[in-house]
UniProtKB/TrEMBL annotation:
Transmembrane segments: none annotated. This is DUF1501 domain-containing protein. It comes from Humisphaera borealis. It comes from the Bacteria. InterPro entries: Alkaline_phosphatase_core_sf, DUF1501. Signal peptide: none annotated.
Length: 425
Protein backbone atom coordinates (compact mmCIF):
# COMPACT_ATOMS: atom_id res chain seq x y z
CA UNK A 1 0.00 0.00 0.00
CA UNK A 2 2.90 2.40 0.62
CA UNK A 3 3.79 2.32 -3.04
CA UNK A 4 0.45 3.94 -3.86
CA UNK A 5 1.42 7.03 -1.89
CA UNK A 6 4.53 7.99 -3.84
CA UNK A 7 4.54 11.15 -5.98
CA UNK A 8 5.27 9.07 -9.06
CA UNK A 9 2.23 6.86 -8.50
CA UNK A 10 -0.02 9.86 -7.91
CA UNK A 11 1.25 11.53 -11.05
CA UNK A 12 0.74 8.35 -13.08
CA UNK A 13 -2.80 8.09 -11.77
CA UNK A 14 -3.60 11.71 -12.65
CA UNK A 15 -2.13 11.35 -16.13
CA UNK A 16 -4.14 8.21 -16.85
CA UNK A 17 -7.30 9.73 -15.46
CA UNK A 18 -6.85 12.85 -17.60
CA UNK A 19 -6.21 10.82 -20.71
CA UNK A 20 -9.25 8.60 -20.19
CA UNK A 21 -11.61 11.37 -19.21
CA UNK A 22 -10.52 14.25 -21.41
CA UNK A 23 -8.33 12.81 -24.15
CA UNK A 24 -5.28 14.77 -23.02
CA UNK A 25 -1.88 13.87 -21.65
CA UNK A 26 -0.03 15.79 -18.94
CA UNK A 27 3.51 16.82 -19.73
CA UNK A 28 6.06 15.04 -17.52
CA UNK A 29 6.82 18.19 -15.55
CA UNK A 30 3.15 19.31 -15.37
CA UNK A 31 4.11 22.37 -17.40
CA UNK A 32 0.89 22.28 -19.37
CA UNK A 33 -1.55 20.14 -21.30
CA UNK A 34 -1.35 18.94 -24.88
CA UNK A 35 -4.03 17.31 -26.97
CA UNK A 36 -3.73 13.62 -27.67
CA UNK A 37 -2.22 12.83 -31.06
CA UNK A 38 -4.97 12.78 -33.71
CA UNK A 39 -5.74 9.39 -35.17
CA UNK A 40 -4.63 8.76 -38.74
CA UNK A 41 -7.49 8.49 -41.22
CA UNK A 42 -10.72 10.46 -41.22
CA UNK A 43 -10.60 11.39 -44.91
CA UNK A 44 -13.58 9.32 -46.05
CA UNK A 45 -16.78 11.35 -46.12
CA UNK A 46 -18.73 8.40 -47.50
CA UNK A 47 -18.40 4.63 -47.82
CA UNK A 48 -19.58 2.33 -50.60
CA UNK A 49 -19.56 -1.20 -49.18
CA UNK A 50 -19.67 -3.87 -51.88
CA UNK A 51 -20.75 -7.19 -50.40
CA UNK A 52 -20.05 -10.47 -52.18
CA UNK A 53 -22.66 -12.74 -50.65
CA UNK A 54 -21.79 -16.42 -50.27
CA UNK A 55 -18.04 -16.26 -49.68
CA UNK A 56 -16.06 -15.33 -52.78
CA UNK A 57 -12.94 -17.36 -53.53
CA UNK A 58 -9.72 -15.48 -52.78
CA UNK A 59 -7.63 -17.72 -55.03
CA UNK A 60 -9.90 -17.13 -58.03
CA UNK A 61 -9.99 -13.38 -57.53
CA UNK A 62 -7.43 -11.21 -55.72
CA UNK A 63 -4.97 -13.69 -54.20
CA UNK A 64 -4.02 -16.06 -57.02
CA UNK A 65 -1.33 -18.70 -56.71
CA UNK A 66 0.36 -18.75 -60.14
CA UNK A 67 1.30 -22.19 -61.37
CA UNK A 68 -0.20 -24.00 -58.38
CA UNK A 69 -2.67 -26.88 -58.94
CA UNK A 70 -5.12 -25.03 -56.67
CA UNK A 71 -5.66 -22.56 -59.55
CA UNK A 72 -7.29 -25.30 -61.66
CA UNK A 73 -5.66 -23.97 -64.80
CA UNK A 74 -6.72 -20.35 -64.28
CA UNK A 75 -3.94 -17.82 -64.82
CA UNK A 76 -2.78 -14.79 -62.85
CA UNK A 77 -2.36 -11.50 -64.72
CA UNK A 78 -0.37 -8.33 -64.19
CA UNK A 79 -2.12 -5.20 -62.97
CA UNK A 80 -1.61 -1.43 -62.93
CA UNK A 81 0.03 -1.86 -59.50
CA UNK A 82 3.69 -2.82 -59.68
CA UNK A 83 4.30 -6.42 -58.71
CA UNK A 84 0.63 -7.15 -57.95
CA UNK A 85 -1.16 -9.92 -59.80
CA UNK A 86 -4.81 -10.93 -59.68
CA UNK A 87 -6.88 -13.63 -61.38
CA UNK A 88 -7.48 -13.48 -65.11
CA UNK A 89 -11.20 -13.42 -64.33
CA UNK A 90 -10.82 -9.70 -63.46
CA UNK A 91 -9.09 -8.00 -66.41
CA UNK A 92 -10.88 -4.66 -65.91
CA UNK A 93 -10.12 -4.52 -62.21
CA UNK A 94 -6.50 -5.25 -63.12
CA UNK A 95 -6.40 -1.78 -64.70
CA UNK A 96 -7.67 -0.17 -61.47
CA UNK A 97 -5.41 -1.86 -58.94
CA UNK A 98 -3.27 1.28 -58.55
CA UNK A 99 -6.24 2.62 -56.55
CA UNK A 100 -6.62 -0.48 -54.37
CA UNK A 101 -5.23 -1.78 -51.07
CA UNK A 102 -5.54 -5.56 -50.95
CA UNK A 103 -5.83 -7.23 -47.55
CA UNK A 104 -4.81 -10.80 -48.30
CA UNK A 105 -4.63 -11.95 -44.69
CA UNK A 106 -8.26 -11.67 -43.62
CA UNK A 107 -9.20 -14.44 -41.20
CA UNK A 108 -12.29 -15.51 -39.28
CA UNK A 109 -13.60 -18.31 -37.11
CA UNK A 110 -17.09 -18.17 -38.65
CA UNK A 111 -17.54 -20.65 -41.48
CA UNK A 112 -21.35 -20.51 -41.65
CA UNK A 113 -22.97 -17.94 -43.94
CA UNK A 114 -25.30 -16.18 -41.55
CA UNK A 115 -22.71 -16.00 -38.77
CA UNK A 116 -19.97 -14.84 -41.12
CA UNK A 117 -22.25 -12.22 -42.65
CA UNK A 118 -23.27 -10.98 -39.23
CA UNK A 119 -19.66 -10.65 -38.09
CA UNK A 120 -18.65 -8.88 -41.30
CA UNK A 121 -21.36 -6.26 -40.82
CA UNK A 122 -21.31 -5.76 -37.06
CA UNK A 123 -17.84 -6.83 -35.77
CA UNK A 124 -19.61 -8.95 -33.16
CA UNK A 125 -20.41 -12.64 -32.93
CA UNK A 126 -24.03 -13.62 -33.31
CA UNK A 127 -25.84 -14.17 -30.01
CA UNK A 128 -29.51 -14.91 -29.20
CA UNK A 129 -29.67 -12.14 -26.59
CA UNK A 130 -29.01 -9.07 -28.73
CA UNK A 131 -28.75 -7.89 -32.33
CA UNK A 132 -25.85 -5.55 -33.00
CA UNK A 133 -26.07 -2.65 -35.45
CA UNK A 134 -24.36 -2.68 -38.81
CA UNK A 135 -21.44 -0.39 -39.58
CA UNK A 136 -23.70 1.92 -41.59
CA UNK A 137 -25.95 2.51 -38.59
CA UNK A 138 -22.91 3.33 -36.48
CA UNK A 139 -21.73 5.82 -39.09
CA UNK A 140 -25.01 7.72 -39.16
CA UNK A 141 -25.42 7.59 -35.39
CA UNK A 142 -21.95 9.01 -34.69
CA UNK A 143 -21.30 11.19 -37.74
CA UNK A 144 -24.71 12.05 -39.15
CA UNK A 145 -25.06 12.71 -42.88
CA UNK A 146 -23.91 15.60 -45.03
CA UNK A 147 -27.35 15.77 -46.65
CA UNK A 148 -30.10 16.69 -44.19
CA UNK A 149 -32.87 15.33 -46.42
CA UNK A 150 -31.54 12.07 -47.85
CA UNK A 151 -31.22 8.99 -45.61
CA UNK A 152 -27.66 8.61 -44.41
CA UNK A 153 -27.64 4.81 -44.62
CA UNK A 154 -28.88 2.91 -47.67
CA UNK A 155 -28.88 -0.82 -48.51
CA UNK A 156 -29.24 -1.86 -52.15
CA UNK A 157 -30.26 -5.43 -53.00
CA UNK A 158 -29.63 -6.51 -49.41
CA UNK A 159 -30.40 -9.96 -48.07
CA UNK A 160 -32.59 -10.81 -45.05
CA UNK A 161 -29.39 -11.71 -43.16
CA UNK A 162 -28.41 -8.06 -42.89
CA UNK A 163 -28.59 -6.97 -39.21
CA UNK A 164 -29.94 -3.49 -40.03
CA UNK A 165 -29.77 -1.13 -37.04
CA UNK A 166 -29.67 -3.85 -34.36
CA UNK A 167 -30.26 -2.40 -30.90
CA UNK A 168 -30.01 1.16 -32.22
CA UNK A 169 -33.20 3.11 -33.03
CA UNK A 170 -35.09 2.12 -36.17
CA UNK A 171 -34.47 5.39 -38.00
CA UNK A 172 -30.76 4.45 -38.16
CA UNK A 173 -31.49 1.29 -40.14
CA UNK A 174 -30.54 1.39 -43.82
CA UNK A 175 -33.22 2.37 -46.29
CA UNK A 176 -33.72 -0.82 -48.34
CA UNK A 177 -33.84 -0.57 -52.14
CA UNK A 178 -34.56 -3.81 -53.96
CA UNK A 179 -34.67 -2.44 -57.51
CA UNK A 180 -32.05 0.27 -58.03
CA UNK A 181 -33.29 0.88 -61.56
CA UNK A 182 -36.82 1.78 -60.48
CA UNK A 183 -36.05 4.80 -58.34
CA UNK A 184 -37.39 5.18 -54.84
CA UNK A 185 -40.68 3.33 -54.80
CA UNK A 186 -43.91 4.79 -53.35
CA UNK A 187 -42.33 8.26 -53.15
CA UNK A 188 -44.87 10.06 -55.31
CA UNK A 189 -48.21 11.38 -54.11
CA UNK A 190 -51.09 8.94 -54.60
CA UNK A 191 -53.36 9.69 -57.53
CA UNK A 192 -56.07 12.29 -56.84
CA UNK A 193 -54.22 13.47 -53.73
CA UNK A 194 -53.59 17.21 -53.90
CA UNK A 195 -50.72 19.08 -52.31
CA UNK A 196 -53.08 20.57 -49.73
CA UNK A 197 -54.47 17.12 -48.90
CA UNK A 198 -50.96 15.81 -48.39
CA UNK A 199 -50.01 18.74 -46.17
CA UNK A 200 -53.14 18.28 -44.08
CA UNK A 201 -52.61 14.55 -43.66
CA UNK A 202 -48.95 15.02 -42.81
CA UNK A 203 -49.79 17.61 -40.15
CA UNK A 204 -52.45 15.34 -38.67
CA UNK A 205 -50.08 12.36 -38.60
CA UNK A 206 -47.42 14.48 -36.90
CA UNK A 207 -49.85 15.76 -34.27
CA UNK A 208 -51.16 12.29 -33.46
CA UNK A 209 -47.68 10.79 -33.54
CA UNK A 210 -46.13 13.38 -31.25
CA UNK A 211 -48.94 12.92 -28.72
CA UNK A 212 -48.43 9.15 -28.81
CA UNK A 213 -44.66 9.51 -28.41
CA UNK A 214 -45.10 11.84 -25.44
CA UNK A 215 -47.31 9.26 -23.75
CA UNK A 216 -45.19 6.27 -24.74
CA UNK A 217 -41.65 6.38 -23.36
CA UNK A 218 -40.24 3.93 -25.88
CA UNK A 219 -37.55 5.00 -28.32
CA UNK A 220 -38.96 2.89 -31.18
CA UNK A 221 -42.11 5.00 -31.10
CA UNK A 222 -40.06 8.17 -31.50
CA UNK A 223 -37.91 6.50 -34.19
CA UNK A 224 -40.99 5.51 -36.17
CA UNK A 225 -42.30 9.06 -36.03
CA UNK A 226 -38.94 10.36 -37.25
CA UNK A 227 -38.93 7.91 -40.15
CA UNK A 228 -42.42 9.06 -41.10
CA UNK A 229 -41.51 12.74 -40.95
CA UNK A 230 -38.25 12.24 -42.86
CA UNK A 231 -40.11 10.33 -45.57
CA UNK A 232 -42.64 13.14 -45.94
CA UNK A 233 -39.84 15.68 -46.21
CA UNK A 234 -38.03 13.62 -48.84
CA UNK A 235 -41.19 13.27 -50.93
CA UNK A 236 -41.28 17.07 -51.28
CA UNK A 237 -37.57 17.50 -51.93
CA UNK A 238 -35.63 17.95 -55.16
CA UNK A 239 -33.14 15.47 -53.69
CA UNK A 240 -35.57 12.69 -54.56
CA UNK A 241 -34.20 12.85 -58.11
CA UNK A 242 -30.91 11.33 -56.97
CA UNK A 243 -32.62 7.92 -56.86
CA UNK A 244 -33.45 8.09 -60.58
CA UNK A 245 -30.47 6.61 -62.43
CA UNK A 246 -32.23 7.15 -65.78
CA UNK A 247 -31.04 10.76 -65.47
CA UNK A 248 -27.55 9.49 -66.23
CA UNK A 249 -26.55 9.47 -69.90
CA UNK A 250 -26.90 6.21 -71.79
CA UNK A 251 -23.13 5.77 -72.06
CA UNK A 252 -22.70 5.86 -68.28
CA UNK A 253 -25.59 3.48 -67.70
CA UNK A 254 -24.15 1.03 -70.21
CA UNK A 255 -20.69 1.29 -68.65
CA UNK A 256 -21.98 0.22 -65.24
CA UNK A 257 -24.18 -2.50 -66.74
CA UNK A 258 -27.88 -3.22 -66.98
CA UNK A 259 -27.76 -5.91 -64.29
CA UNK A 260 -28.78 -5.25 -60.67
CA UNK A 261 -25.24 -4.87 -59.33
CA UNK A 262 -24.37 -2.40 -62.07
CA UNK A 263 -27.47 -0.31 -61.46
CA UNK A 264 -26.89 -0.50 -57.72
CA UNK A 265 -23.33 0.79 -57.98
CA UNK A 266 -24.39 3.61 -60.29
CA UNK A 267 -27.04 4.59 -57.76
CA UNK A 268 -24.42 4.35 -54.99
CA UNK A 269 -22.19 6.81 -56.84
CA UNK A 270 -25.10 9.23 -57.22
CA UNK A 271 -25.93 8.90 -53.52
CA UNK A 272 -22.43 9.59 -52.20
CA UNK A 273 -22.17 12.45 -54.67
CA UNK A 274 -25.21 13.92 -52.88
CA UNK A 275 -23.76 13.47 -49.39
CA UNK A 276 -25.10 10.07 -48.28
CA UNK A 277 -22.80 8.69 -45.61
CA UNK A 278 -22.96 4.90 -46.11
CA UNK A 279 -24.23 2.85 -49.05
CA UNK A 280 -24.04 -0.93 -49.22
CA UNK A 281 -24.55 -2.72 -52.52
CA UNK A 282 -24.87 -6.49 -52.46
CA UNK A 283 -23.83 -8.31 -55.60
CA UNK A 284 -26.69 -10.21 -57.19
CA UNK A 285 -24.52 -13.32 -57.62
CA UNK A 286 -24.28 -16.03 -55.01
CA UNK A 287 -20.56 -16.76 -54.64
CA UNK A 288 -21.23 -19.97 -52.68
CA UNK A 289 -19.52 -22.05 -55.36
CA UNK A 290 -19.71 -25.58 -54.02
CA UNK A 291 -20.23 -26.87 -57.56
CA UNK A 292 -18.33 -26.34 -60.81
CA UNK A 293 -15.93 -23.65 -59.61
CA UNK A 294 -14.42 -22.72 -62.96
CA UNK A 295 -17.75 -22.65 -64.79
CA UNK A 296 -19.33 -20.58 -62.00
CA UNK A 297 -16.53 -18.03 -62.09
CA UNK A 298 -16.72 -17.89 -65.87
CA UNK A 299 -20.42 -17.04 -65.62
CA UNK A 300 -20.34 -14.57 -62.71
CA UNK A 301 -17.12 -12.60 -62.91
CA UNK A 302 -17.63 -10.59 -66.12
CA UNK A 303 -20.43 -8.39 -64.77
CA UNK A 304 -18.88 -7.99 -61.31
CA UNK A 305 -15.48 -7.14 -62.79
CA UNK A 306 -17.09 -4.64 -65.15
CA UNK A 307 -19.04 -2.81 -62.47
CA UNK A 308 -16.38 -2.62 -59.77
CA UNK A 309 -13.81 -1.30 -62.25
CA UNK A 310 -16.18 1.31 -63.67
CA UNK A 311 -17.18 2.45 -60.19
CA UNK A 312 -13.57 3.13 -59.20
CA UNK A 313 -12.80 4.88 -62.48
CA UNK A 314 -15.98 6.97 -62.35
CA UNK A 315 -15.34 8.08 -58.76
CA UNK A 316 -11.76 8.93 -59.67
CA UNK A 317 -12.72 10.93 -62.76
CA UNK A 318 -15.29 12.92 -60.77
CA UNK A 319 -12.83 13.70 -57.98
CA UNK A 320 -14.87 11.65 -55.51
CA UNK A 321 -12.52 8.74 -54.84
CA UNK A 322 -10.33 10.73 -52.45
CA UNK A 323 -13.33 11.28 -50.15
CA UNK A 324 -15.16 8.00 -50.82
CA UNK A 325 -13.93 4.72 -49.36
CA UNK A 326 -14.92 1.73 -51.49
CA UNK A 327 -14.74 -1.65 -49.75
CA UNK A 328 -15.17 -5.13 -51.19
CA UNK A 329 -16.11 -7.58 -48.47
CA UNK A 330 -17.31 -11.16 -48.10
CA UNK A 331 -18.03 -13.51 -45.19
CA UNK A 332 -15.13 -15.92 -45.85
CA UNK A 333 -13.02 -17.37 -48.64
CA UNK A 334 -13.17 -20.76 -50.28
CA UNK A 335 -11.02 -23.85 -49.93
CA UNK A 336 -7.84 -23.99 -51.99
CA UNK A 337 -8.66 -27.57 -52.94
CA UNK A 338 -11.34 -28.19 -55.54
CA UNK A 339 -13.59 -31.13 -54.74
CA UNK A 340 -13.10 -34.14 -56.98
CA UNK A 341 -16.81 -34.89 -56.55
CA UNK A 342 -18.47 -31.52 -57.16
CA UNK A 343 -15.61 -29.59 -58.84
CA UNK A 344 -16.36 -26.76 -56.41
CA UNK A 345 -14.74 -25.15 -53.40
CA UNK A 346 -15.94 -25.38 -49.81
CA UNK A 347 -16.19 -22.70 -47.09
CA UNK A 348 -12.83 -21.44 -45.88
CA UNK A 349 -12.73 -18.81 -43.11
CA UNK A 350 -9.04 -19.41 -42.35
CA UNK A 351 -7.81 -16.87 -44.89
CA UNK A 352 -9.48 -14.71 -47.54
CA UNK A 353 -9.27 -11.27 -49.12
CA UNK A 354 -11.03 -7.93 -48.70
CA UNK A 355 -9.95 -4.77 -50.50
CA UNK A 356 -10.28 -1.03 -49.93
CA UNK A 357 -9.85 1.87 -52.34
CA UNK A 358 -9.98 5.65 -52.02
CA UNK A 359 -10.95 7.48 -48.86
CA UNK A 360 -7.39 8.06 -47.71
CA UNK A 361 -6.01 4.51 -48.13
CA UNK A 362 -2.94 3.59 -50.15
CA UNK A 363 -3.29 2.55 -53.77
CA UNK A 364 -1.40 -0.31 -55.39
CA UNK A 365 -0.68 -1.81 -51.98
CA UNK A 366 -0.85 -5.31 -50.51
CA UNK A 367 -1.16 -5.94 -46.78
CA UNK A 368 -0.67 -9.39 -45.32
CA UNK A 369 -0.06 -12.65 -47.06
CA UNK A 370 -1.52 -16.13 -47.31
CA UNK A 371 0.70 -19.17 -47.61
CA UNK A 372 1.83 -20.76 -50.87
CA UNK A 373 -1.48 -22.54 -51.49
CA UNK A 374 -3.91 -20.06 -49.91
CA UNK A 375 -4.67 -22.35 -46.98
CA UNK A 376 -3.55 -20.24 -44.01
CA UNK A 377 -2.45 -16.71 -43.11
CA UNK A 378 1.31 -16.45 -43.49
CA UNK A 379 1.83 -12.84 -42.45
CA UNK A 380 -0.08 -10.09 -40.60
CA UNK A 381 -3.51 -11.60 -39.82
CA UNK A 382 -6.47 -9.21 -40.00
CA UNK A 383 -9.81 -10.01 -38.37
CA UNK A 384 -13.24 -8.72 -39.41
CA UNK A 385 -13.09 -6.46 -36.37
CA UNK A 386 -9.72 -5.07 -37.45
CA UNK A 387 -10.88 -4.31 -40.98
CA UNK A 388 -14.10 -2.70 -39.75
CA UNK A 389 -12.05 -0.65 -37.30
CA UNK A 390 -10.00 0.52 -40.27
CA UNK A 391 -13.14 1.50 -42.18
CA UNK A 392 -14.52 3.31 -39.13
CA UNK A 393 -11.26 5.17 -38.55
CA UNK A 394 -11.13 6.11 -42.22
CA UNK A 395 -14.49 7.82 -41.69
CA UNK A 396 -13.29 9.58 -38.54
CA UNK A 397 -15.21 7.50 -36.02
CA UNK A 398 -13.53 7.30 -32.62
CA UNK A 399 -12.93 3.59 -32.04
CA UNK A 400 -13.29 4.13 -28.29
CA UNK A 401 -16.67 5.86 -28.59
CA UNK A 402 -19.25 3.92 -26.58
CA UNK A 403 -22.93 3.42 -27.37
CA UNK A 404 -25.27 1.58 -25.01
CA UNK A 405 -27.94 -0.96 -25.81
CA UNK A 406 -31.42 -0.51 -24.27
CA UNK A 407 -30.30 -2.76 -21.40
CA UNK A 408 -27.34 -0.49 -20.72
CA UNK A 409 -24.59 -2.70 -22.14
CA UNK A 410 -21.66 -0.73 -23.62
CA UNK A 411 -20.45 -1.35 -27.17
CA UNK A 412 -17.90 0.16 -29.52
CA UNK A 413 -18.03 0.28 -33.31
CA UNK A 414 -15.53 -2.53 -33.97
CA UNK A 415 -15.52 -4.41 -30.67
CA UNK A 416 -11.85 -5.09 -29.87
CA UNK A 417 -10.67 -4.54 -33.44
CA UNK A 418 -7.63 -2.38 -34.15
CA UNK A 419 -7.31 -0.26 -37.28
CA UNK A 420 -4.67 -1.38 -39.75
CA UNK A 421 -2.98 2.01 -39.99
CA UNK A 422 -0.46 0.74 -42.55
CA UNK A 423 -3.31 0.93 -45.07
CA UNK A 424 -3.63 4.69 -44.75
CA UNK A 425 -1.74 6.89 -47.18
Amino acid sequence: MNSLRTDISRRTFVERFAQAAFGVTLLPAFGGLRAAEPAIGGKAKSVIFLYMRGGISHIDTFDPKPGKPEMAGVNAIKTSADGVQISEWFPRMARQMHHVSLVRSMTSTQGIHDRGTYLAHTSYFMTPTITHPSLGSWAVKVLGSANAVLPGNILINGSPQHPRSGYMPTHLAPLPITDPGAGLQNAALPSKTTESDFARRTALARAIGERFVNQTPHRDAAAYLKVQQDAATLMKSEDLKVFDISREDKKTQAAYGTHTFGKGCLLARRLVESGVRFVEVEDEHNWDTHNDQVKSMENMTPTTDQTMAVLLEDLHQRGLLASTLVVMATEFGRSPQISTVTNGRGHHPGVFTWWLAGGGVKGGYVYGKSDATGEHVAEKPVTMQDCNATIAQAMGIDLQHVEHSPSGRPFTVADKGKAVTDLFA
